[in-house]
Amino acid sequence: MSRWRPPPEKSTALITRAGHDRLKAELDELWRVKRPEVVKALAAAAAEGDRSENAEYTYRKKQLGEIDRRVRYLSKRLPALRVIDEVPADPEAVFFGAWIELERIDNGDLSRYRIVGPDETDAATGWISIDSPMARALLKKRVDDEVEAQLPGGPARFAIISVKYGAAPLP
User: Fold this and answer.
1) Would residue 80 be called left, alpha or beta, if left means φ above 0 and alpha means ψ between -120 and 50 degrees?
2) How, if at all, do strands 154-164 and 99-104 pair?
3) Are 27 and 71 in contact (CB under 8 A)?
4) Which pTM does this prediction carry?
5) CA angle in degrees (0–180, nearest 5) for 52-57-58
6) Is the C or the N end of the chain the one with fewer CB within 10 Å?
């Protein structure tokens, strides 16, 4: 059995200003604070002697590898990202950075989403990737339009209640 997997789909290289600032701060924190701490702890663990039975040494090596992997990813990803922080020419339509309030047609449930880049998605706060099926269904739609999105539980129909832009969420 092969361990080969097809490469992941290319993600959209868009990000909000706040998301870009967070990624830059994460890279800086990893490089200037966490990595030196782990290197120091790794050196102390290595000085304890036999490395083959040293759990602290093994743990610190893994931790350093994870930090280095994330630093490499962020170092390549940040220059490739395009920061979008202006309101689109048509603020009545759904585009990147929009706060959208939706009503599910079959049961009347209200939900709020913000369309953001794939590097800043957060399901708990309703920030969805522009590459997600829901966001793709919403793009270029307007208030009172109905959209159908393929959700994990099956297809669902929504009506767009409001569209806003800016850093603050809908009231």
Assistant:
1) alpha
2) antiparallel
3) yes
4) 0.82
5) 70
6) N
